[in-house]
Amino acid sequence: MNKSITSQFGHPRGVLGSLAGMLMAKRNHERTQFVIDQMAVTEGDTVLEVGFGPGLGIQKLFVREPNLSITGLELSKVMLRQASRRNRAQIIAGNLDLQIGDGCEMPFKDATFDLVYSVNTLHHVASLEKFAAEINRILRPNGMAVLAHQHPMKWVDAPVPGKMKKIKTVLETQGFYNSEIIQKAMKPSPTYVLKALNK
Questions:
Q1: Among 10, 144, 152, 186, fewest CB within 10 Å belongs to which?
Q2: Distance (Å, rounded) from C-alpha 111 to C-alpha 56?
Q3: Model pLDDT for residues 90-115, shown as the tens digit of each residue
């Protein structure tokens, strides 16, 4: 696949980025729901999604538990616009704050969130170590990290389990515990979800 096209899924920009966002929202329902189902959220929790894309995960998470305070962090202004339109009612109600920012340098105070999750961003972050350290910093004690990945092409799925094991090791080095990787078969390739708690 042309690099100019595939890059749009990591940092959507312009017209191609808008199309990429619409495609992600249309195709990722099963994966997104599977990730949401792995989250232990309760009324009043504060949640962060890193790389919220078109905002589908946020939308589904509010369906799962309406009384949450959710923040989203995203590199792409195109995705910020799409996610804002999709979740306009929650923004107006004051339950959702969407921001532009980098997962390796998050603009949040220590111990801000009960849960941090991210889907298909691990291969885009500049440093897994910095990303894990930032998640650890902004999570409250015993907070949960949920990190998921699904490769868009079945025939190149092989590197994904190794990538998930690597980030699991990185999280454990940062002090996370009770970490586990859950796999579910789906099209076009399996989805892997890593869950861990911080101290």
A1: 186
A2: 26
A3: 999 999 999 999 999 999 999 999 99
Order of strands, sheet of 113-119, starting from the edge strand that comes earlier in the sequence: 96-100, 69-74, 46-50, 113-119, 139-150, 191-197, 177-184
d(CA 121, CA 123): 6
**Among 38, 71, 27, residue whose Cα is nearest residue 148:** 38
Q: Provide the residue ranges of all domains of the chain, joining segments of one domain with +.
A: 3-197
Going by their DSSP bridges, the two strands 139-150 and 177-184 should be labelled as: unpaired
CB 96 within 8 A of CB 122: no
Class for domain 3-197, per CATH? alpha beta
The token duo for 10 is: 């990591």
pLDDT at site 158: 57
Residues sharing a CB contact under 8 Å with residue 156, sequence separation 6 or more, in sequence order:
none
